[in-house]
Design a protein that fits this description.
alpha+beta; globular; 6 strands
Length: 185
């Protein structure tokens, strides 16, 4: 029993150490660096997903997090910084933060973009002091199969989200429980 407790404590400490080593906020006061990362991530997404290009043409805004780091062992979390793009211009900066517990182990890096298709969804983001995913506007997570059938005329939900660039060893990606908050660099 004592060995299990010690192993758990070592694993938790290793997870915290890994998180500290890997989580380096992109911005840290440097909006130029974050803007470059956002531009690069959008270009990468548009090359990979033609439907994202089509949605961008009719979306009210795109909120993109170019690099989100997720680390966990029993207890975990993720963090990333991004920008809200309206009419091709950055109008705000945001972070995404989540904590979790349960049967989990590993670390990964990924990015995601959220296409706000209607004014009501965008207003919800702007008016909420911190938006918890799963509460508020409906979000559709677009995978490769869905991307083949979706068109701008079939989009009925307020927000469509695309994941890209997943690297690392962690089971699955999810945003449920993630909180998105506006930040002022």
């Amino acid at each position: 029993m004592r060995i299990m407790i010690r192993l758990s404590l070592v694993a938790i400490m290793l997870t915290i150490f890994t998180a500290v080593c890997f989580i380096q906020p992109v911005m840290a006061g440097d909006t130029t660096k974050l803007n470059r990362a956002v531009d690069k991530a959008l270009k990468k997404l548009y090359v990979k997903s033609p439907v994202a290009v089509e949605l961008a043409k009719v979306a009210k805004a795109v909120l993109i997090f170019p690099s989100v780091i997720k680390v966990g062992f029993l207890v975990g979390g993720h963090y990333g910084e991004g920008a809200l793009i309206v009419d091709g211009k950055t109008v705000g900066y945001y972070n995404t933060v989540a904590g979790s517990y349960g049967l989990q182990a590993g670390a990964q890096k990924f990015g995601y973009a959220m296409f706000f298709m209607d004014t009501a969804s965008l207003e919800y983001l702007n008016k909420s002091g911190g938006w918890e995913i799963g509460v508020g506007p409906s979000i559709v997570f677009v995978d490769e199969g869905m991307a083949k059938t979706i068109t701008t005329s079939t989009t009925k939900e307020g927000i469509y989200a695309f994941f890209y660039g997943q690297k690392g060893l962690m089971a699955g990606i999810g945003l449920q429980g993630s909180k998105i908050t506006k930040i002022n660099p």
